[in-house]
Amino acid sequence: MPRVQEKAKILETHREAEGIHRLVFYAPRIVPTARPGQFVMIRVASEGSDPLLARPFSFHRLHKEDGLFEILLRVVGTGTRILSQRPAGSVLDVVGPLGRGFSLPSGPHETVAFVAGGIGIAPLWALLDELTSKTHRNRPEQLHVFYGARTRAELVPLTPLKRLGVHLVVSTDDGSSGEAGTVLEALRRRYEGGSGLPDRLYACGSLPMQVSLARWASGRNLSVEMSLESMMACGIGACLGCALPAVNPDDPQAERYVHVCQDGPVFDPRRIRWDKIQPIMARPLTFASL
Predict the structure, then answer these.
(1) What is the pLDDT of residues 65-88, one digit of tens each?
(2) Is 56 known as a binding-site position?
(3) Which end of the chain has fewer CB atoms at under 10 Å, N or C?
(4) 51 is in an annotated binding site
């Protein structure tokens, strides 16, 4: 799928939650071929100023008929702070669509679970839009969304999500909204004992969450796809800065790496060597927090 470099205009900016912002871009050349799970590289600064490198952001929502895409970002560094302060009307250099997106269920008969930890809701929302308008248009109740955050203030507005008609389970670590505990605890309670497991599961969140979820899903008859997003400098495989240890099918003990920008960001968790990643579990995996 060809990538495009485009001058994209910011049409809207919104503060969605504590430290979380949503931006709407007009990019009529990028949007037509974009898919949920893919991403764009956005140069957040003016030409010649810091930060020099572009930042990766997942498609949060896609409005193809209008040539629009949305991103959701958490302000944690210089790049995201600058971008969150960009006013409507700003024009930025954007390259995309990039990476490998989510595959879709075969039909409405499939029960699907979504596991979103914090800013991990960003790419999963675009997928929810796709499913509720296509494969599950008449059966949105087959879509089960588990969305968690540390506290109520960090949850994005849920009304648009509820309008999709999906089954929504909200949790917060401190119990200030929804169920008390992590999003994985909410997932385990729902499928305790292995009964009623979904046919397919999609996930995005912090690295510790992904590691734990991969362990939980291992051995269960589930089709799982995870958005394993990472820090990167180029988005096209040139810098090799987003390498993750992967399973070598010919020799399980041999070293092999995949690159998030080209081989992902969406992966079957069985392809990843989680035991090799655990020493760096403190590093969050999310495009939206760079």
Answers:
(1) 999 999 999 998 888 999 999 999
(2) yes
(3) N
(4) no
Q: Is 187 annotated as a binding residue?
A: no
The answer on whether 55 is annotated among ligand-binding residues is yes
252-267 confidence digits (pLDDT tens)? 777 788 888 788 799 9
Report the alpha-carbon distance of residue 98 to residue 22 in Å, rounded.
Answer: 20
Distances (CA, A) of 78 to 24, 51, 53, 217, 282: 20, 7, 11, 36, 20
Answer yes or no: is 204 a known binding residue: no
- Secondary structure string (H, E, C) spanning 38-51: CEEEECCCCCCCCC
Q: Which two tokens stand for residue 259?
A: 């690159």
Is 234 labelled a binding residue? yes
Taking Cα atoms as reference points, which of 250, 247, 253 lies closest to residue 274? Answer: 247
Q: 72 among the known binding-site residues? A: yes
Other beta carbons less than 10 A from residue 47's beta carbon:
6
**Is residue 73 a known part of a binding site?**
yes
Which domains are present in the chain?
4-98 (2.40.30.10)
Percent of the chain whose pLDDT exceeds 70: 88
